[in-house]
Write a structure and sequence with these properties.
With about 230 residues, the chain is an alpha+beta fold. The chain contains seven helices and four strands; from the N terminus they run αβαβααααββα. Strand 1, helix 2 and strand 2 form a beta-alpha-beta unit. Keywords: Signal.
């Protein structure tokens, strides 16, 4: 079976149909799927955030990505991204490491753009060589020199593995896993649990409800969506 088609089938199997739900922050997941939820909170000073565990080779993540960006920009809330490269995918780990290179060594905004472009061109990247060629073209287009060795000391790979470890502690089992989180410790799962829906469009009403629910909190500063490093 074609690897790309097989990956799409797996992603489809992991995405459960959307079940109608009220737009509200429910608190701890009722199905008990998620374990250590202590990290499900916005960055300091923010009332609400979108938390995403993603795999750059995941077709469902590629479909959700522009919706995440649109929702975050519309409501002026940050996106906190965790890399969760699935072992069945050929090049997703290397792509995550290079995104970290851009974030840490070049420009976080360029790292965001790299992730967006990888998702947009995902269907044409079938191997590590394809990813290397895509990345070289991306760097040239943005006036950057391609490093001879991206991660000589393994620090960036360690950051990606640390993100993956956070996902394991939370009990992430599929990608994308998406939450809307509040600064009062409440959250709602948009995608990724065992029993709920998987429609990223739910981000809009849930973020709206979360902002109303936290309206008495200190106002959040309006800012652009930024990539966040987790160690």
């Amino acid at each position: 079976m074609n690897r790309r088609f097989a990956a799409a089938l797996v992603a489809g199997a992991l995405s459960l149909p959307f079940a109608a739900a009220h737009a509200q922050i429910l608190g701890p997941a009722s199905d008990g799927h998620f374990k250590d939820t202590s990290m499900l909170k916005p960055p300091a000073g923010q009332r609400v955030a979108v938390v995403v565990f993603e795999d750059l080779e995941c077709p469902a993540c590629a479909a959700a990505h522009p919706i995440e960006l649109q929702a975050a920009q519309q409501y002026h809330v940050p996106i906190v991204r965790y890399d969760f490269p699935l072992q069945m995918h050929v090049w997703s780990f290397e792509a995550a490491v290079f995104a970290r290179y851009l974030q840490d060594k070049v420009n976080p905004a360029l790292a965001d753009e790299y992730r967006t472009q990888v998702f947009r061109n995902q269907i044409s990247i079938a191997s590590k060589d394809d990813l290397q060629n895509f990345t070289k073209q991306f760097m040239q287009k943005h006036g950057q020199a391609m490093p001879f060795v991206v991660d000589p000391g393994g620090k960036l790979a360690g950051e990606v593995k640390a993100d993956y470890g956070v996902g394991l502690r939370l009990n992430v089992t599929r990608t994308p896993t998406i939450f809307v989180v509040e600064n009062n410790g409440h959250y709602e799962t948009i995608s990724g649990n065992e029993t709920g829906g998987a429609d990223p469009n739910r981000l809009f009403p849930v973020i709206d409800a979360a902002l109303k629910q936290t309206h008495n909190s200190a106002p959040a500063a309006v800012h652009t969506v930024a990539r966040t490093t987790h160690k």
